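Support case: user asked for a sample of complex input and structure output to validate their parser. Sending the pair below.
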Amino acid sequence: ALAIRDVSKRYGTGDATVTALDGVDLEIAPGTLTAVMGPSGSGKSTLLHLAAGLDAPTAGDVVIGGTSVVGLDDDALTALRREQVGVVFQSFNLVPSLTALENVELPALLAGRAPDRARIAELLADLGVTGLESRRPHELSGGQQQRFAIARALAQRPAIVLADEPTGALDSVTSIEVQEILVRQAAAGQAIVVVTHDPAVAARAERIVLLRDGRIDGDLPATDA
Amino acid sequence: ALAIRDVSKRYGTGDATVTALDGVDLEIAPGTLTAVMGPSGSGKSTLLHLAAGLDAPTAGDVVIGGTSVVGLDDDALTALRREQVGVVFQSFNLVPSLTALENVELPALLAGRAPDRARIAELLADLGVTGLESRRPHELSGGQQQRFAIARALAQRPAIVLADEPTGALDSVTSIEVQEILVRQAAAGQAIVVVTHDPAVAARAERIVLLRDGRIDGDLPATDA
Ligand SMILES: Nc1ncnc2c1ncn2[C@@H]1O[C@H](COP(=O)(O)OP(=O)(O)OP(=O)(O)O)[C@@H](O)[C@H]1O
Ligand SMILES: Nc1ncnc2c1ncn2[C@@H]1O[C@H](COP(=O)(O)OP(=O)(O)OP(=O)(O)O)[C@@H](O)[C@H]1O
Ligand SMILES: [Mg+2]
Ligand SMILES: [Mg+2]
């Protein structure tokens, strides 16, 4: 599903160069749930952005669904991303002028497809936000926005789901709902990568990748405990 | 320091009225650390916004440092807030066009005072973000932005600090640093209110207020455990 091959990412130039990622290798198979953990600033969000084809690596390659992103033009990269990848951003990134439901339907519309309304209604019910569909993002609480952002990433059943701290704004009961949904999606064959600081979320994954200063510091099978 | 008197907050009108808070009473004394917990959508952020004088209650009164906000004109309310209150927003709300350090200095500049540079340098060191001062918010990770937002709320040593999930984007080590800082500020006499989903943060507070569907559902002394 997803391969990160010797990827580095640097920002700035000269004295002010910041190395966010430094030679990261990672293979993510379909039907798996992988947690990525690490200190604040260690490169987790940068890794997700590159894996989603949202930013170009400074060195190395990202292979999404068998297609290398290096050398693709913008239109081809956007089409690949729309077909293959769903992203839950750390800062939600809902479109302020659209309703919550329109935000969830947007990926389908952008891919030129009809939204799967039954699936979306089921997801919103599982996430506990039924009834808030016609609100705009600023009329929702932080946790409610996060749950619509999760629904948006999952609605199209993309082959790869990249979620950046998807339970950060949620209470523990709601967080467990989200964990159940992610585990279910992985069992259905999707490749799910979850950046998290929450040990309860990491415990649901079958693998925990540790990032520190832009490098992989550990890659452990999560215990069955 | 802060009194919330029978406060309700309703959004919308007619059929579409949403009651975010429904008759909340709360007294916060100087030199205390109070945690506010509750499910997503229960009214925590709304409570903080009203307590900070950032929004008007639909009913009831908010008394900040002995001054009632009801009936104050905008200029007087802004002056009161600048003198008495520091806020850490759930979505950080850093000013994108300013550097991280300028964001921290902004409350002092808006209050017509010189920023306390030694205090700010000490806070940034405690928070582990020394060296990132000249970055703009979009050049920082989520957790780094959150730590600058915390420094901004604390820099002026305001009588009241209202923090909305200040450790939501932080790893557990960094979160403990923030907890230490908040405990220290309360011991120094400030009134600190922290909205949190993290039991480790709540455990540092001397009191835990539980919110459910816009009402206070419990008000417990945190155990000394
Ligand atoms: N502008 C608005 N219009 C309508 N409803 C609103 C508006 N702002 C907030 N709400 C509603 O008010 C309720 C309380 O929201 P609030 O943001 O205070 O919740 P919260 O406890 O902070 O939740 P979270 O833990 O998800 O951040 C929610 O149900 C939310 O949908
Ligand atoms: N545009 C940029 N310019 C310079 N440095 C940047 C830029 N974007 C990110 N960085 C730096 O790259 C490093 C990695 O950032 P990243 O957002 O991936 O961290 P993270 O692991 O997601 O952290 P957090 O847990 O705080 O969200 C950080 O040190 C950050 O300051
Ligand atoms: Mg991040
Ligand atoms: Mg909130």
